[in-house]
Amino acid sequence: MVKVKFSTGKDVDKLLNQAALDAVNKNGLDIDCPKCGKKIHVSFSGDACQFCGITIEYGTDGNV
Predict the structure, then answer these.
(1) Residue 42: is it exposed, middle or buried by C-beta count within 10 angstroms (0-12/13-18/19+)?
(2) How many other CB atoms are there within 10 angstroms of residue 40's CB atom?
(3) How would you classify the pairing of strands 29-32 and 47-48?
(4) pLDDT tens-place string over residues 41-50
């Protein structure tokens, strides 16, 4: 059993955001293209939709 204690909620948010980003960077992301609506797989932020060419930017920051 592993026990982890965080000092603040920000520590938890930072850890979860990093874990999510690591998982996406490792496995890619299956999404509906926001422009053409077709199902696509992007491996990295900055990849383009293979159907319409829009650049897909993603991250854990809400401003991306």
Answers:
(1) buried
(2) 20
(3) unpaired
(4) 988 778 899 9
